[in-house]
Amino acid sequence: MTYELAIGDRSYSSWSLRGWLFFEKFGIPATTRRCVLYTDEVQKLLADFAPARLVPAVKTPEGEVIGESIAILETLAERHPDAGLWPTDPAARIMARYMVAEMHAGFTALRGDCAMNLLKSYEDSAPRPEVLAELARLELIWARAHDRFGVEGPWLFGRYSGADAFFAPVATRIATYNLPVSAAAQAYVDAHLADPSFRRWRAMGRAENLVQPSYYKPYAERPWPGPAPLVAEACEGPSLNDACPYSGKPVTHFLRLDGRVWGFCNAFCRDKTLHDPEVWPRFMAMVESAR
């Protein structure tokens, strides 16, 4: 048996991104169940996760329900001590827990003014002084952690931890709204944008293609600042493969990459791959084996 994870829209639900990263980045199996935010789907899904009121919510293999991201993180760290959700160094763990708690409860101006939207990036969002003050606080605590514990890599405490998962949606806000940060903070943002797990999440959100109008701003747009994906396009079959690289089922939907056609068992499998082909190991293994 595995965990069940309830999430909302991948392009907009920052808390869902955190919850998903706890499982994805640390190799903990989970079945993901999604609902569309601001619709009846939310309460229908959460009826199976009572008494949780919001996404993400988790049901353990034994049937216990965990609501709130900080509780999910602590529970998984307790149940999977070898997964590495917290830093191994005791002093680093203290700092990481403190930073996660501050993120969970604070940065209300940044979160309120700059809602997560992984489908857009803006040239200039004219951040208010309150947002700039919170960015300064972020830079301070990020630098404090990285300078002491993370100097050998891009993450706050050396290797990726639950603290990095907690700050991933903040990194996307800086990317979406082109918020002014130092070179060191931008390097940390860039590490999140380049992370294959985050890129898979964003590609799935693009495949869902859900538009929540309240998340869109009247600013001039720019290209997404993360790594440019390989160029692929939807097309007609036939394909080189007969079975979907993810499910093994017969193919019905197709994309073209580097002049060759590949098949998938449904539109979502095709489209999540189309939007960022190189971050899907099963697909790329199939492509490489045919060369």
Shape designation: globular
Question: How confident is the prediction overall: mean pLDDT?
Answer: 97
**Largest sheet geometry:** 4 strands, mixed
Q: What are the low-pLDDT stretches, counting only 5+ consecutive residues below 50?
A: none
Strand content: 5-15%
Number of strands: 7
Termini separation (Å)? 37 Å
- The chain-level structural class is alpha+beta
Radius of gyration: 20 Å
- Helical residue percent? 40-55%
How do the helices and strands follow one another from N- to C-terminus? EHEHEEHHHHHHHEEEHH
Count of the domains: 3
Strand sequence of the main sheet, in spatial order? 2-1-3-4
Q: What is the CATH class of the largest domain?
A: Mainly Alpha
The CATH topology of the largest domain is given as Glutathione S-transferase Yfyf (Class Pi), Chain A, domain 2
InterPro entries: Glutathione-S-Trfase_C_sf, Glutathione_S-Trfase_N, Thioredoxin-like_sf
Protein name: Glutathione S-transferase
Domain GST N-terminal: 3-84
Walkthrough of the structure:
This protein is α+β, with helices and mostly antiparallel strands and 291 residues long. It folds into three domains: 3-79, 3-Layer(aba) Sandwich (Glutaredoxin), CATH 3.40.30.10; 90-199, Glutathione S-transferase Yfyf (Class Pi), Chain A, domain 2 (Up-down Bundle), CATH 1.20.1050; 232-289, no CATH class. The chain has eleven helices and seven strands. The chain has helices spanning 14-24, 41-46, 69-79, 90-105, 108-113, 129-149, 162-177, 183-194, 196-208, 267-274, 281-289; strands at 3-7, 30-34, 57-59, 65-67, 232-235, 253-257, 260-264. The strands form two sheets. It has a four-stranded mixed sheet. A three-stranded antiparallel sheet has the order 5-6-7. α1 packs across α7 (162-177), α7 (162-177) crosses α8 and α9 crosses α10 (267-274). It is globular, with a radius of gyration of 20 Å. The two termini are 37 Å apart. The mean pLDDT is 97.
